[in-house]
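Continuing the series of single-chain predictions for the mutant panel. This is the parent chain; the variants come on the following pages.
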Amino acid sequence: MMKKDTPRGTRTGFTTGACSAAAARAAALGLVTGHVPSQVECNLPNGSVVVFDVHDGYCDGQRAHAMVIKDAGDDPDCTDKAHLTADLRMVPEVGQVLLLGGVGVGTVTMPGLGLEVGGPAINPVPRKNIIANVMAVASGLLDDAGIEITISVPQGIEMAKKTLNARLGILGGISILGTTGIVKPYSTAAYRASVVQGVQVASTLGHDVVVLTTGGRTEKFVMEEMPHLPAAAFVQMGDFLRYAMSAAARHQIKQVIIGGMVGKLTKIAQGEEITHAGRADVDTGLLANIARDLGAPEAICAAIAEGETARFASEQMEILGLSVPFHTVLAERVIQTLQARYPQQFQLHVLVCDFDGRKVTEVRSENLC
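Parent structure:
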C-alpha cells in the first residue's frame, strides 16, 4: 500500500505486463483449487512480490477467468484503469503452455519488434513473467494436460488509438509491456524505449532510412515533404536524439533525416543529445555568432546573445530578411556536430520548419564541403 503522505506526482504504478501476470496467476489458482481468489500475490520481473486485487473471478474446472485493473500510479498513461483479463483453459496437449492475445491486445503485423509476426503484442519479459506466475501455482496440471492462457483488454482497441502502435505495425489493440513490472511516475523510460523500438522497426522496411522528428508538428511537416516514405519510417524522438541515433547506428541504417524547429536544432548543433529544456540552456551565443556571420547589426546580435530563447533569434532574423540563410547555417551546424559524433556512419538530411509547420530550409550532408 502507498503511504498517505506520498508526495503528489511520485506514486508508482504497475505495467500492463504485471497486471496480466497477476490476472493469469489468479485464474490458474482457480483451475487448481476451484476458487479464484479476490487477491493474489504476483512475482514481478524485478523480483518483488506484489498483492493485486482480483475482479470477476470464476472457474468451472476446465476454465477460469480473472481480471486486474491497472493502476498506473501518478504516470500519465493512456492504459491507466485498463482491465487486464486472463482466461485460462485446460487443453489436451500434455505439458503445453500456450499464450494468446484476445480482444484488445494488438497483433504484430511487421517485423522488427522481436515478436512473431501474426502473434500477440506481448513483449518478451511480460510473456515470460505471465507464464512463470501460472507455473508457480499450476505446474502440476501439466502432468495430465496443457494450459492455454489468453490475455485480453476490453478497452484496448480504443486505448491503442492514443499510442504509436499502428505506426509500429501493431494493430487491433495495445501492447502488453513492462521490463520491471513497475511504472515510475512521469518516467521517460517508456518513451525512450518506444523511440528505440521505432528505429528498430524502421530498419526492417528496406528503405535504409529513418526520419527523426522532435514532435507531432515537425513529423507532419516532414511527412508532407516526403510522402513516398511509409509512416513506420518516421519516429518521434522527442528529446532523445542520443537513443535514436545509437539505435540507427546499431541497426546500420545509412540515412538519417531530422525534422525540427530552431530550438531543438540549436540544442543538437551545440552538442546536446538529450534536448529536454531541463538538461541544458539554448546556446544563444552560438545563434548570435551565426547572425553576426550573416551580417546582422551588432545590436541585434548582442540582443540575441542575451536573449533566453532560440525563437527570439529566429524572429529577429526573419525581421531582417535573413530567416532562410540563418536556418540553413543552423542546419549545417547540426550536420557538422552529428558528423563529428558519428563519423562516416550516416548520410544526414535536416529539414527545418517554422512554428506554424511551414518549411524554411533543408540541408543534406553530401552538399556540404
